[in-house]
Amino acid sequence: MKIKFKKFKKIWGAIRRNWRVNHRLVISDESTHAHIFELLLTPRRLFVVITVSAFVLIFLTTMLIAFTPLRVYVPGYTNPNEYRMYRKLVYKVDSLENALRQNQQYLANFYNVLNGVIPPENSEITDNKAVAHQKEDADEVSKGISQIEKEAERIISEIKDRGVKTNITLNQRATLKSITLSPPTLGLISKPFSLSERHLAIDIKNEKGTMITSIADGFVLFVGYTPKDGNMIIVQHAGDLISVYKSAETIVKKAGDKVSIGEMIATMGNTGVESRTYHLHFELWFKGAPVNPLDYISIY
Q: Rounded to 5 degrees, what are φ and ψ at 184?
């Protein structure tokens, strides 16, 4: 280590001694010995010239890369067209992600309709157990919530004579009542809507071949057959409303067809392993939750 330090000290001392010593660079003719070019240099002047030249070269190279088309050949740089294309792709990917989330929510609601699954409690759907819990803690809730509970109890008491229950909020029911709906068919109610019995529909009994019509304008979402429910057709209406018609004998529409209110879509039958007589198993779903059709439709 000492040897290296001494060597470095020796070199540095030589540089300091010759820092201002003049040196002459001469180019001469070999035959005549005439001087063609002479240049007087010192180590200090040579260092300054090399340093300034290096900075000028770096500056010119930077300008050349930044403001000329040559920058596209430098790794990491993109041309303006590619940059605009990347931005468009980013916007498209973001739009596709939003559309995918909406489709996933739509498919989740559609799965609930097909399988009769009641969605979990959220800010808009009131569960019976939650209502009972709110009654027990009525002294601890605010005055506004207490008034809502009283109004809910009054409405529930009005429909108890029908032997049905509801799990949709007052605001949603008011919105649904503003939609004009027609009866899906004619007949007698053989089994009412009941959440406690997991019967999320009403059964309307009548003769074989009785006409089944759409309750409102919409588009046919699904047509198919399952061993449990028989022939089934599902119609999507405006306002997040879906109507489901099961146990049909024949279906006269196909998926994607546009239907009008009162238009025939199927005939009454006795299909499906759970069916015991000719009837229509009719379900009504609003915002992904089952509702009692008798609250909004009169069956004759």
A: -70, -25
